[in-house]
Amino acid sequence: MKKLNILYVRVSSFDQNPERQRVQESKYDKVIEDRVSGAVALFEREGGKELLKLIQLDLVGSVSFWQIDRCGRDLKGIVDFLHFMVERKIPVHFIEQGLSTLNQDGTENPISKMCIAMMSVISEMNRNLIKNSQREGIELAKLKGNVFLGRKPNTKEDPLKFLSKSKNKHAMELLKKNYKSVEISKITGLHINTITKIKKLILAI
What we know:
The protein is α/β, with parallel strands linked by helices. Helix content is 47%, strand content 12%.
């Protein structure tokens, strides 16, 4: 049986456009798409679980990503995934960087391995810088006495506006697919209480 050459596509939310990552999709046998934060481990994502199942069935010939950060945002997660794939002799390609984990003869490509490790570190550093900048921005706003950090006391957020937020929309889709609240919390990063509120609003609509 011919093994599948898979293109894996990931964007962080439902309102982001994945088309740039799909420009060469006609070259592949199958496209798997996830709309989830890169902080979620690849095989814990909905599409990632599908990919893992295909790998376990020995149906995957190769997996391609547009960039390394589509695979993951932390060094350990990326390294663990690539090690998993190398052990199974499944090449992983990063299109924009022009890198492949395995040579034509199935041996590990040491130059690519070094470049991927370096770029994985850079991806993790960028993520940490963004998080630190957000944290510093919040602290600075607090010092300045700004009031945009949350809703004013005794005010209610419009239900439709609340449900239209990208993470909440993602949670609704997962609820429709019968995911458990704990699973949705892990995938979306939402608090369990927020998911409970989404459930109640869906029932009320």
